[in-house]
Design a protein that fits this description.
The protein is of the alpha+beta class. The chain has 24 helices and 28 strands. The strands form 9 sheets. It has a 5-stranded mixed beta sheet. A 5-stranded antiparallel beta sheet has the order 7-6-18-17-16, sandwiched between helices. Strand 17 and strand 18 form a beta hairpin. The longest helix is centred in the N-terminal third of the chain and has 31 residues. The chain is elongated.
Length: 869
């Protein structure tokens, strides 16, 4: 006996019953389904001379009549066209036997979830359904159920207008009768033709059955999710009781489910939306006088979600499996997934999933004891393919005490410092370097609407530090400066390219973004780190390898996405080089920390939010990226000291060691060496300035300053990086007016305050050039004798006579043969007797006289003499 016969053989009054509404007066009289409005033609005043009003009226009447007749003919033709091959209303509930849909791991051998088997359905008479359930369904789906003739004209017009404005297909505005037709006979394709067929069948059903008959069939047919069909099966499945005994809260919850039974499942990730819709339904019931205001108020105070009994389904990798189900439902519709017998092969690695679930469970239990953090989540993926290999949304899906059904992998949470590598990657792409020096000193940042003063995790100032040291040690103040230098919009643009989906409203974000001031999803965060592991190439996360229908036909199959380059390799390699440098972070984390693996290089970063709400650790090798979150699902803070390295670190480290145990060791490609011209980008010049000065005048040495008087002097004059670079062109010329930058003054004040605390004596380097060693001050010298080309004997004595004068006076005259010093003439005596060395070789030699003043300005005269044999 088919379903239709089972349903129709149940006893009910065959008369068309118009059920009265409790708490209301007489029901409104039903209007005819198809009726034309009466046409009233008013008296027309024609402003034109010679035009007869009667003739115009007759012409207008003929036109309107013809249009109405033509419209009627077209409407009747459409009815006839779409009525062909429609099911007989007497057999409309007959349908194919549903087949289960199965979800497998990547091998196709481990069954994760069986959306299974025969339908859970128990036929029930309308009197055996709680009146509260009846009125809840009407309030939720069709308030005018007892007034219309199968469809609601106003609702259809409203939905069509909305669809036209939105550019979509026909949807919405369905009555209970239409929903019965849609669920029992027609597909859920969103087309105008399907909608018209639905309207025709709804009208036919209304002509053949009474309202209560239709309502009874609706309650026995409607899906409530998975294999649960009909309100009686739903009542026992969710509340372990008959539909006859449902209370107001339970009735509202069941009425809320049919709108999206899989999405709003009480065992899924959207229970907050289910509860919100149920409370809305209770409000409508009171508004429509189906219940009293007092009953509604009492129900609104209840914890509705606690009414559901614990789930008893056999389900592996529940957060992942149910997420896959949601994806499929959105793409293929509830009916095909729950009854179409599909075979789904996913990307999940069951071996890694078991490791992940075990480590998350152990880690969360340990954190609960030590830090009052009762939950954790983990996601792991292949950065090259984007395939998700393991996903654990909470410590235990079936643990109601810790909100285990919530999939934290898909929920936005603040990432703390784990977002810093994205910011530094943007800065390196702009031209900054890991050696770039920043001052880690207390700094006020001019920010709208209020100023912003960040502090480090340890509450200390570390003075001048490199970007490498700042990122490795997770220092906050340099990170905020790096974000400013990179640009907030630049970082947000990069983050969007890397797959972050929660950063659309940019008006919410300022310089605190780098410290985790914006919420991100763990899945997006892991995909962002995958860009670093994949050397700047973004691959979107994927979850499904293949979908086959009940006959084995492939509906879709995974293909490697086209590579999307979002960062230059050099910028990514610089970040990875820092995150894998354990020595660089040892001053904060120590050499023994959970950010390293014993047998291979790995890049990793922690994150901890303010007041210890969230602890993170994300890290990667070239072939595996894993992210771990720890905390409480209700956002309750953990104990002080619940740093991500302590809460998330052990989970991440244990998982990575086990996941990579049998994998070959991979190394990261080191960054290329660059020739950096600017000292500040090489890590030089922020604490002191070196200047070559004239030791006598104490001014800057010039080309006229004697070499013997030149000396390099280091002046203590700390400056922020904004003194040396324009933030948008760090490798360009030094700014001539650095004070034009809105942050410059505050950054400089922070540096000066720090220098004062350190008792650094501030010295201003000279700005003026040496003014005592100038060409015009050089002595004038003439060599009187011996004269040019004079012949002298080796070992003989000879007389030298010189004339010399200088603006500052001549202090001394020194005599040289070639470059050998022979002696000195002391002024005012400008002549003297000298001997030629006996060892001189015969031939020409240069005899020089050099005059000096009191500051060693020098003048010279010379003659070439010949030494004889």
């Amino acid at each position: 006996m088919n379903f239709c016969q089972n349903t129709l053989n149940m006893t009910y009054n065959p008369r068309r019953v118009k059920s009265p509404r409790p708490w209301r007066g007489k029901a409104r009289r039903r209007q005819p389904l198809f009726s034309l409005p009466k046409i009233r033609i008013p008296h027309l005043k024609i402003p034109f001379q010679g035009l007869k009003a009667g003739a115009l009226i007759r012409t207008l009447f003929l036109f309107v009549t013809s249009a109405v007749l033509l419209g009627g003919i077209i409407f009747i033709w459409l009815l006839a066209l779409f009525s062909r091959n429609l099911p007989n209303p007497d057999r409309f509930l007959e349908r194919a036997i549903p087949l289960s849909t199965k979800i497998y791991d990547r091998t196709g051998k481990t069954l994760l979830y069986d959306i299974h088997g025969s339908e859970k359905r128990t036929l029930v008479e309308l009197p055996d359904i709680s009146p509260l359930a009846k009125w809840a369904a009407i309030a939720a789906e069709d308030r005018s159920f007892y007034e219309h003739s199968g469809f609601d004209i106003k609702g259809i017009v409203r939905s069509v207008l909305i669809d036209i404005l939105r550019g979509g297909k026909a949807q919405g505005g369905s009555t209970i009768t239409q929903q019965l037709v849609k669920n029992a006979v027609l597909t859920r394709e969103k087309t105008y033709s399907r909608k018209l067929k639905e309207l025709i069948m709804a009208y036919q059903l209304e002509k053949q059955f009474s309202k209560d008959q239709i309502l009874k069939m609706y309650f026995n047919e409607i899906p409530y999710g998975s294999t649960v069909y009909g309100i009686e099966a739903a009542s026992f499945t969710f509340f372990n009781k008959s539909a006859k005994t449902l209370d107001l809260g339970e009735a509202a919850l069941l009425a809320a489910l049919p709108q999206a039974p899989s999405y709003l499942s009480p065992y899924g990730s959207h229970t907050d939306e289910l509860e919100k819709r149920a409370r809305y339904i209770i409000g409508v019931m009171a508004e429509e006088k189906y219940i009293s205001a007092e009953d509604a108020e009492r129900a609104q105070k209840e914890d509705l979600l606690k009414k559901f009994k614990a789930r008893q389904d056999n389900l592996l990798a529940p957060h992942f499996s149910l997420f896959i189900k949601d994806l499929l439902m959105e793409k293929y519709g509830d009916r095909l997934i729950e009854e179409g017998g599909l075979r789904i092969t996913t990307t999940l690695d069951w071996d890694l999933q078991q490791i992940a679930e075990e480590e998350v469970r152990k880690g969360a239990e340990n954190n609960e004891k030590k830090y009052s953090g009762g939950n954790a989540a983990l996601v792991s993926l292949d950065p090259k393919s984007g395939q998700v290999l393991a996903l654990v949304g909470s410590r235990d899906y079936f643990d109601e005490e810790h909100d285990g059904a919530v999939n934290v992998v898909m929920r936005p949470r603040q990432p703390g410092s784990s977002f810093k590598p994205i910011v530094y990657a943007a800065a390196f792409a702009k031209g900054y370097t890991p050696e770039t020096t920043l001052y880690d000193v207390e700094t006020v940042f001019k920010n709208y609407p209020t100023d912003y003063t960040p502090h480090n995790y340890d509450g200390k100032e570390h003075g001048p530090v490199s970007m490498r040291k700042a990122l490795a040690g997770s220092l906050n103040i340099p990170a905020v400066k790096t974000l400013y230098l990179a640009g907030v919009d630049t970082v947000l643009n990069l983050a969007e390219k890397m797959g972050y989906s929660t950063l659309k409203n940019r008006s919410r974000f300022g310089l605190s973004l780098v410290l985790g001031g914006a919420e991100v999803k763990l899945l997006d965060h892991a995909a962002g780190y995958a860009v670093l592991a994949n050397e700047g190439v973004y691959v979107p996360p994927s979850f499904i390898l293949r979908v086959e229908d009940g006959q084995g036909n492939v509906l879709e199959e995974w293909e490697q996405p086209a590579p999307k380059k979002v960062l230059e390799k050099q910028a990514v390699r610089l970040v990875t080089n820092i995150l894998s440098d354990n020595d660089a972070r040892a001053y904060v984390f120590g050499t023994q920390n959970p950010l390293t693996l014993p047998d291979r290089p790995v890049a990793a970063k922690t994150g901890t939010t303010n007041d210890w709400h969230d602890g993170w650790l994300l890290g990667y090798t070239p072939s595996l990226v894993t992210g771990v979150w720890t905390g409480n699902n209700d956002n309750k803070e953990m104990k002080r000291g619940a740093d991500g390295s302590y809460t998330a670190g052990p989970i991440w480290n244990a998982f990575m060691q086990k996941a990579l145990k049998s994998k070959p060791v991979e190394t990261f490609t080191p960054p290329e060496k660059e020739d950096i011209e600017k000292p500040i980008l090489r890590g030089e010049g922020t604490g002191q300035i070196k200047v070559v000065i004239d030791t006598i005048s104490k001014r800057r040495a010039t080309e006229w300053t004697p070499l013997s008087l030149r000396a390099e002097h280091a002046f203590q004059e700390p400056h922020s990086i904004l003194y040396f670079v324009g933030k948008n062109d760090p490798r360009g010329p030094q700014p001539s007016h650095p004070e034009d930058d809105p942050q410059f003054r505050n950054w400089e004040d922070g540096v000066l305050a720090w220098a004062k605390k350190q008792k650094i004596t501030m010295e201003q380097p000279p700005v003026e050039d040496d003014n005592i060693h100038l060409p015009e001050y050089r002595p004038a010298v003439s060599l009187i004798s011996p004269t040019e080309s004079a012949v002298l004997s080796a070992g003989s004595s000879f007389t030298i006579s010189v004339q010399a004068s200088a603006p500052r006076g001549v202090r001394s005259i020194k005599i040289f043969l070639d470059e050998t010093f022979l002696g000195e003439l002391l002024t005012p005596n400008l002549s003297g007797v000298f001997s030629l060395p006996g060892s001189l070789s015969p031939g020409p030699h240069t005899l020089s006289s050099r005059a000096y003043d009191d500051v060693l300005n020098e003048g010279e005269a010379h003659a070439v003499i010949t030494v004889s044999q």
